Amino acid sequence: MKIQIINGPNLNLLGKREPDVYGSLPFESHLENLKNKYPYIIFDYYQSNIEGEIINKIHEAGPSCNGIILNAGGYTHTSIAIYDAIKAINTPVIEVHISNVYAREAFRHQSLIANACKGVISGFGIESYRLAIEAIMGM
């Protein structure tokens, strides 16, 4: 099984940015934990602050993996282009968020990509990624 994890803008700052919201460890540390917990899964990890690069990665990963875990960051609330990229592939995409977006600013309450995704996991901290892995394994 192969899972692509894609993190969007500002998620390269995990561990530094608002640790009370996002935690104090960089994502790469969490990724190592996931690799140890699921040694039979091949994880590809990609992070970009650029919308077009995220779209290109969705197109590239779609045919070659069993599922995509996408934390589109701020693009979740603004990107019709990422929505279209998800709709263009057959691979299931799980939208994840570390924080509970519904307990935050009102503009974060709307996801433009959720309708294209198989499911949405929000508010469980970094465990949101593990929950997405479990969901993909169950498909």
Automatic annotation (TrEMBL):
E.C. designation(s): 4.2.1.10
Top-level enzyme category: lyase
Keyword Lyase: yes
Superkingdom of the organism of origin: Bacteria
Keyword check for Glycoprotein: no
Binding site for substrate: 71, 77, 84, 98-99, 108
Catalysed reaction equations from the record: 3-dehydroquinate = 3-dehydroshikimate + H2O
GO biological process: amino acid biosynthetic process; aromatic amino acid family biosynthetic process; chorismate biosynthetic process; quinate catabolic process
Site note Transition state stabilizer, residues: 17
Pfam families the record matches: DHquinase_II
One Gene Ontology MF term: 3-dehydroquinate dehydratase activity
Keywords in alphabetical order: Amino-acid biosynthesis, Aromatic amino acid biosynthesis, Lyase
Pathway entry: Metabolic intermediate biosynthesis; chorismate biosynthesis; chorismate from D-erythrose 4-phosphate and phosphoenolpyruvate: step 3/7
PANTHER family linked to this entry: CATABOLIC 3-DEHYDROQUINASE
Family in the record: Belongs to the type-II 3-dehydroquinase family.
HAMAP family: AroQ
Subunit structure: Homododecamer.
Function per UniProt: Catalyzes a trans-dehydration via an enolate intermediate.
Protein name: 3-dehydroquinate dehydratase
